[in-house]
Amino acid sequence: MNRRTTTTRAGGRRKAFTLLEVLLAAAMSAVLAGVLYATLHTAFRARSQAEDQVADFRRAELVAEFICSELRSAVVPNGILAGTFYGEDATGPAGPDSDSVEFYRAAGATDQEVGQGDIMMVELLCEPSSGGSGMDLVRRVRRNLLAPTFYDLPNQVLARGVMGFNLRYFDGLVWTDSWDSSTMDNSLPLAIEVDVLVASDEDAASDPTRGAADEYRATHVLWLPASTLDVGLEIEVEQ
Length: 239
Known about the structure:
The protein is α+β, with helices and mostly antiparallel strands. Helix content is 25%, strand content 31%.
């Protein structure tokens, strides 16, 4: 294919592109732009999915860390204000673990409406979600233990879309699924295993019964510094 030649004012000749060549160059540019767009779109989508997965896992980790910080401040269940440490093993309506625990702990600097070092009662449990999607892990706090009348404690939602909440207690010899300090010489467990299983935000809102691929687990084990029990055997923590 020969290029068309044109005559300049000075009498010289120069070559020019034909319309077919211009269209071919434009088509090649469009193809390259499409390939680049598809590559960037795939990369950004993969990045977004990775960030979503990390965010859901981090959400489970933050909830488990908060529960550990609450339990770590538990006080020995004796005296006038410090009542029973009671952990109950239970299952939810759909079958997953739905444990609860009630204990007394010393208030810290970040606790509101109570003086630092004062004793308050904390309850952690799962309840059916108000939105109808799975369970909500909630926290209830009673700050004024000397009030003449107890009122219903308001719920503080720690996490939504919870698929399982399990607690295990170590007495120095074995791990148990429940704990009642009134039958354990008013003692706290030596250690507690906190296991939280949450669904991704999207799956929890659409279908709380999705499979394990859409679930994120965080398992922590903490020692209770206020426990008066002695270690009888070497601890083997199941992960």
